[in-house]
Amino acid sequence: MTEDAWRPLGVETEDQIAQFDALHDGVPEWMASAYWAWVRDALIVIRSYRDGSGRFPMLDTALAEDMCQILKIPLPDVRAAGTGQDIGAAQLKTAMSVLRQHDAPLQVADYLLAHDGHAKATDLDGILGRSKSAYTVGSRGDRPGLVRRVPVGVQIAAESVMARAGRAGARLAKAWEEVYGLTPSASEAYRLAILAVEDAAVPVVSPTNLRATLGTVLRQLEDQNDWRLPMDREHSNAASSSVVIGMLRMLWHGQHDRHGGQPSAPGNVSMDEARVAVAVAVTLVQWFNAGLISRLP
Question: Which top-rank group of organisms is this from (predicted)?
């Protein structure tokens, strides 16, 4: 048995395993001590006494103040007129006391990852993994940050499409962040997923239509009825043309918060709906970008 598969004595049934392996949001109590120790390390700069008699930790006041201003955390004045072990200890005690009260504690580590905090990202990732956190260290945009866990293979495949699909890939990356980032937005993720598919599909299906939308693409595929995937063997109940059209139709019609003024609409799209939309968009963008969706000769 590998270390990753180890579970405590007595965790044997499916229900027990599911409960033990469940992921947790926020900072659960069993993670708190190690998590806040990492935050403290990330805020520390090491200074030396002028006479060379030793070294001591001080608070990186610029980093702490910038972070608290961005995250709207009321940090008292922690600037010090001098330096020394006692002064540094007092600074750090004040800062950590305030940070621990923040109602979204993972935002603190997320900021420190993105703004060159002084602790190792790999150490934080280990803490998150061992504590069964719902988040892991990844990247959002061009910066390191916390992202919601997804299976590694899914993440790698999605990032490959994002990197190679030009503008559509850039939209997908933003949609992915809106779904799996620390401050997700289902409606924005869904909107960006549709835009990404439009970026990939319109140049293939409607290259001369400057006003084409995903709805336009869908209608054209349905009317022409000769677009397909390169499958040599197809089932009569799941022809590749029907699969592509079905995926596009589901994505297009599933965005039920596209317009206002519709009292009977279900309301804003849910996070689960957004996750489905982004996953479907990744596949469609890859197919269109690779030339796998084409018309019959």
Answer: Bacteria
113's enclosing H/E stretch is helix 106-114
Query: Architecture of domain 152-295 in CATH?
Result: Up-down Bundle (1.20)
Backbone angles phi, psi at 139, to 5 degrees: -140, 145
Coil, strand or helix: which one is 137?
strand
Q: What are 263-284's pLDDT values in tens digits? A: 555 678 999 999 999 999 999 9
CA distance readout (Å), 68 to 139, 227, 241, 282? 21, 54, 53, 36
Q: Which residues contact 268 (CB under 8 A, 6 or more apart)?
A: 186, 187, 257
Burial of 112 (0-12, 13-18, 19+ CB in 10 A): buried
Q: Are 29 and 139 in contact (CB under 8 A)?
A: no
For the record, the structure tokens of 108 come out as 């603190």
The model's pTM = 0.73
Rounded to 5 degrees, φ, ψ at 41 are: -60, -35
Contact 243, 293 (CB under 8 A): no
More confident residue, 62 or 16: 62
Name the residue with tokens 């499409």. 161
Take residue 118 and report the two structure tokens written for it.
């002084």
Structure tokens at 61: 């006041």
Q: Do 291 and 228 form a contact (C-beta atoms < 8 A)?
A: no
Domain-wise residue ranges, the chain? 3-136, 152-295
